[in-house]
Amino acid sequence: MPRVLICDDDPDIAEVMGEFFQDHGIDCVTTHSFDEVVAHRTESLGCSLAILDVNLGFGQPSGVDVFRWLQREHFAGSVVFLTGHAVTSSLLDGARTLGVPILSKPIEGETLLRLADAEASA
Amino acid sequence: MTRITTATTAPEVIEARRGAATAAIIAMLGQTTLAVVDDRALGFSALVAARIAHVALASIALALLWLRPPSVRGADVSFALAAIPFQLVLLVSELEFHARGDVRDHGSWYQLTMLGIATLAPADPMLPAFLVVTLGVQRVVLRYLLGVVPLAPGEPWLTLIFAAVAVGMLVSRARRREFVANAARVAAHAAALERVARLLLLVRDRANSPLQTVALGAAIMRRRCPDQQRVASAMDRAVRRLRKLSKALQRASRSFERAPL
Which of A13, B70, B73, B258 is deepest in the core (most CB within 10 A)? Predict the structure, then answer.
């Protein structure tokens, strides 16, 4: 069964996305910050897909920092960045250099399910 | 009285006031000096009186500049007060020296006055240009109608050439001022467009997260409440419309960024 790590500083998005996945039988680890991802290390690294908001709040470690931590911890799943920014920001520019897919909010539920299913079948 | 400082005054106003103030100071210092010299050489005369009157008018011009709120119009008025009397003083001077049989050429004074007017005129070129032209005409009239014969070779035509050059300078300065003002307007317009573009992008960025929540919330509602399909469909349509609006905002902000100046 696929398991998804969600990291978004907007609690509404994180909660609703978690509920959406659970409604479709997909287990989730819902976090709102880099620290929470690290605090739930075992659960986070056990996921097959990580959906990371690029911007996790002003002055806070970003989704890019979470991605790098996951890499250092030999995360076996795949990673997708989520962003609300339309065109450019320094964080987004940094994320673009990592070769990780970047999806712009709002994304549809079907897209999320396809991502999770792709990981499950991989 | 509280003076309005120039800290918030537009550059064109500062430049106009600077020109008018310089003209007034030159008139005050120059005519004071010449009044003393003429008084010692000729005794008190109409020419000395005219010079003193000019000093008084130039002082008033300077006082107006100092006391009135800064404006281009005010600078034009002060400049006119300081510059117009030059014509009368030159006329009195030519006639007085002519009447005394003291033949001396005033051509260089005319030419200096014309170039000074062309260099220092604040903004409106019409009055300064008229003044320059009438100075030239005065020189010709004095020569051919009143018989005041200039000594310098080529006069009074040389003075007319100076008049033409001075008018050309006035026109050129007026065009330059217009160009600078247009450039400032364009820059302000571009800055306003950039602010709008940033605002549109900000609105779009801020709208995306709640839009995401609503989109997934509608999907959850559709699954959990099969009897609320119509409501869920309405929410889906609303999300689609908001998504289109979001894209339109992005396109609009990009078009502002590319808008020709």
Answer: A13
Give domain A3-121's CATH number out of 3.40.50.300, 3.40.50.2300, 1.25.40.10, 3.30.450.20. 3.40.50.2300
Q: How many CB atoms lie within 10 A of CB B172?
A: 12
Burial environment of residue B258 by CB neighbours within 10 A (0 to 12, 13 to 18, 19 or more) = exposed
What one-character DSSP code corresponds to residue B19? H
Q: Domain range for residue B210? A: 188-258
Contact A20 B212 (CB under 8 A): no
In a domain, B207, yes or no: yes
The type of residue at B137 is V
> Could B243 and A106 be called an inter-chain contact, meaning their C-beta atoms sit closer than 8 Å?
yes
**Neighbouring C-alpha atoms within 13 Å toward the C-beta of B193:** 16
B157-224 vs B229-258: helix crossing angle, rounded to 10: 160
Q: What are the pLDDT digits (tens) for B199-258?
A: 887 888 788 888 899 999 999 998 999 898 899 889 889 888 888 888 887 777 777 655
Mutation site for A-interface testing, chosen from B203, B211, B216 by largest number of A Cβ within 10 Å = B216
Nearest by CB: B213 against A12, A23, A85 = A12
Distance between CA atoms of A121 and B91, rounded to whole angstroms? 104
Burial class (CB in 10 A: 0-12, 13-18, 19+), B162: buried
DSSP-assigned letter for residue A57: S
Distance, in Å, from the CA atom of B51 to the CA atom of B41, rounded to the nearest integer, reads: 14
Domain ranges in chain A are 3-121
Residues of chain A contacting B212 with CB distance shorter than 8 Å: 13, 16-17, 84, 105-107
ipTM over 0.90: no
